[in-house]
Design goal:
With about 190 residues, the protein is α/β, with parallel strands linked by helices. Helix content is about 35%, strand content about 25%. β7 and β8 form a beta hairpin. It is globular and about 40 Å long.
């Protein structure tokens, strides 16, 4: 029996598997549907973020009150999010996706997603938002500086995110360490 061959075959098999997965997920495979995939991924992240956030006691209301994700200025992401949340629950609540316009009230919103080009609208209401337990997610290079708590990034054509802890803490929210562990960057100081 040659036992030295088994580990070699295992390593070779793993290397081959990694190579095949890399080819299947490489730029050529991802290029044709990239914009649609980006919207799907961001929408999935928005849905999943809720499971890693603790809101202050009583903010979400009774269990009959739906969990609302507000989307400002990102219709493709809102469309994807509607599909993802269909028939699902967050914190034992039904989920509502609300398409917002600038100036709409936010009192029922638990997560606010602000699309590209609309993050500047956060600046005037930044103080008000940080005084409320609303998770603010953006997708701009300066999203955290404008009042976002989580900001989507594209890193090597992959959707990643960064977190600003100061506004999260000011709003009374708590983020799971598991969420912070997978963030591209975590900024302890305000941006």
């Amino acid at each position: 029996m040659n036992t030295w061959r088994s580990p070699w075959r295992l390593r070779r098999g793993v290397a081959l598997w990694v190579l095949l997965v890399g080819l299947a997920c490489g730029p050529c495979a991802a290029q044709p549907d990239w914009p649609n995939d980006e919207s799907q991924i961001k929408a999935a992240f928005l849905y999943k973020f809720a499971g890693y956030v603790d809101w202050p006691e009583g903010f979400l209301g009774s269990v009959e009150t739906p969990f609302t994700i507000g989307v400002l200025g990102a219709d493709p992401i809102a469309d994807e999010l509607v599909q993802i949340v269909q028939g699902r629950k967050i914190h034992s609540r039904s989920i509502v996706v609300s398409r917002l316009k600038a100036g709409d009230p936010l009192e029922d919103v638990a997560i606010l997603f602000v699309g590209k080009g609309d993050a500047a609208r956060l600046k005037p209401v930044r103080g008000t938002l940080q005084a409320q337990p609303i998770l603010v997610v953006t997708e701009e290079p300066a999203g955290l500086a404008l009042g976002g708590m989580i900001n989507f990034l594209l890193v090597d054509r992959h959707v990643r995110f960064e977190v600003a802890l100061a506004p999260v803490e000011k709003s009374g929210l708590r983020l799971s360490s598991r969420l912070l562990a997978v963030a591209q960057r975590v900024h302890a100081e305000g941006r």
